[in-house]
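Quick start: load a record and inspect it. Here is ABC transporter ATP-binding protein:
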Amino acid sequence: MGKPRTRISGADENAQRAENADAPKIPHLLRRISELFAPHKAALTVTVILVLVGAALSVIPPLLTERAFDDGLFPVGADGELLPPNLPVLAGIVIAMMAVFIVSSLLGVWQTWLTANVGNKVMGALRVRMFTHLQGMELSFFTRTKTGIIQSRLQNDVGGVASVLTNTVSSVLGNTVTVISAFVAMLILNWQLTIIALILLPVMVIAQRRVGQVRARIAAKTQESLSEMTAITQETLSVSGILLSKSFTRQRSEIDRYADENANQISLQVRQQMTGQWFFAMVGIFMSAIPAIVYLVSGWLIEGGSTDITAGTIVAFTTVQARLLFPLMALMRVALDLQTSGALFARIFEYLDLQPSITDAAGARDVRDGSALGRVEFDDVTFRYPDADGDSAPTLDGVSFTIEPGQYAAFVGPSGAGKTTVSYLVPRLYEASDGSVRFAGDDVRDLRQESLISHIGIVSQETYLFHASIGDNLRYARPDATDDELVAAARAANIHETIMSFPDGYDTVVGERGYRLSGGEKQRIAIARVLLKDPPVLVLDEATSALDTISERVVQQALDDAARGRTTIAIAHRLSTVVAADVIFVVVAGRIVERGTHAELVLADGVYASLYRQQEERPVLEA
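Running the structure step on this input writes:
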C-alpha cells in the first residue's frame, strides 16, 4: 500500500503538494465526503451562518469608532465649531460597541463548539468504521502491509479530518467575508486612503510566502528529527531493545545516538523560531508605518480641500486596515488546504474500498452439530500465497487427507514444506486455490467464518499475551467465564499452581507480550485460554519448538491432556512430540509423501524414518 502518508503541518508547500498529488484517485470523492457530514447538516448550516455573521460583525467596530470620534468625542457644530464631547451619544456608541464584542465572542464560542463537535464526531465515526473494516480483512492483507502504514491511516489521515472543518472550512468562509467586508468598509470610509493602504500589501504577502516556505522546510526537518527520536525511543526502551542493548553493553552508544539527535532537534527548533524574525520585524514596521502614512496623506488631502476626512475616519480606517493583512495571507493557503483535505479523504476511502478476499458466501450457514463434528477433510487442495510468483511451485499441491473426529493427526516434514499452511486453511484464514477443505462434512466456503472459527482452537509457536492480568488474558477466549472455569482451564493446562505462586495470583500483570513470564508459562496460559474456549478441533502449530527440554515436557503434557476428546491437528518440528499420534502425515515440497503411525513410518524406512533418526542422533552428537 506504499509508505505512510501524513499531513505535513506547516511544512514545505511543495512537499505537501507532491504528497497530495500522490494520493489515490477516488471516484465521486466530493459526494462521498459530503455523505460523511450529512448526519450533521443542521450543525453545519448553523456553523456557516455563525461564520458569516461573525465576520460581518467584525467590521462594525471600526465604523462605530468613526462615529465615536466624530459624533461623541469631537462633535462639530453647524458652523464648523468644535463642540464639547457629547456624552449621551458617546455612551450609546460605547454600549453598541460592547454589545458587538460580546455577541461576536459568544458566536465564536458557539462556532468553535459546533465545528469541534462535528469534526471530531466525523473523525471518530471514520476511525471506528476503518478499524471495523480492517478487522474483516483477510490475514494475507496484514502479512503484506506494514503495521506502521495501517496505524498511519488510522491516526494521521483520519486524525487530520477533524481539522478540515475546524480550520479549513471556517478559515475559507471567515477570512473571505472579513477581507471583503474590510475592503468595502475602507472604500466607504475613503477610497483615496484605500489605495494608499493596499498598494504595499502584495509586497508583504509575497515576502510572507517566501519566509513561510523557508520556515516550512525547517519544520519538515524538525518533524523528521522528532520521528527519528521517537524511533530510537521505541527501539531502545522496549523490553526487547533493553535486553539487546544490555546483552551487548551498547547502552552508552544508544545514549550517544539519542543525545546527538536531541542536539539536532534543539538546533532545528532554534532555527525554526529565528527564521523570519527579520520579516516579522518588517511586518511590524510596515503595520506601524501605514497609519503614519495615512495620517500624512490625510493631512495632505484635508489641506487640498477634502472635506470627507475626519479624525474619526482616520482612526476607523487604520483600524480596518490593520485587520486586512493576515486574512489575506490565510486565504493564500486555502487552495492547498482544500487539496490536502481531499488527499486525506482519498487515502481513507482507499482503505475503506478494500474488499476482503475471504467473505461469507450468500446463504452461508453455521457449523452443524452431529457425528461429523470434528472431521477435517482436504480434497485435492492446491494453494499459492496471494503474493507468490505465478511461476513458482504451489505451497500445497494436490493434498488430500481425512482426519476423523477425535483423532490426533500430526504433520511433519522439513521447514518450508507447507505444514503450517495446512493449519491456515482449516479455519479459512487463507482460501484454497483449488480443491476443497471440508469441516464437519461441509465445505468451509459454505460456512459462516465466525461459526467456523468458534469451533477451532489455535495454539501457535509465538504466543501473544496482552499487557494485562493473567485472568484478563484467559477471559479473552470467554469474557463471561467464571473464576471456577478459569481455574479449571488453568489446572487442565498444568499452570494453576504456577499462577498461584505469584503474589497476585490471577491478577498478576504479565507485562508487554508476556515478558514477565517464561516461555513455558506463556505457552501453558495460551493452552488454558484455548481450553476455556473448549473447541472440538485443536490446531497446534509447533507449540513447543521454541521451548527448552524441561519446559517442552511440561507443555507437551498439557497439550496431550488438552487433546483428549478433540480432533487435534499438530504441526510438529520435533518428532518426539508426536510419536503417539493416531496418524502422521509427512509433507515434502507441498505434497503428502507418507502417512501412517509412528511405528509404521519407521518400519517403512522412508522420509519420516530418516528425519527421526537425525533428531535422535543430534543429542548424542551435541553431547
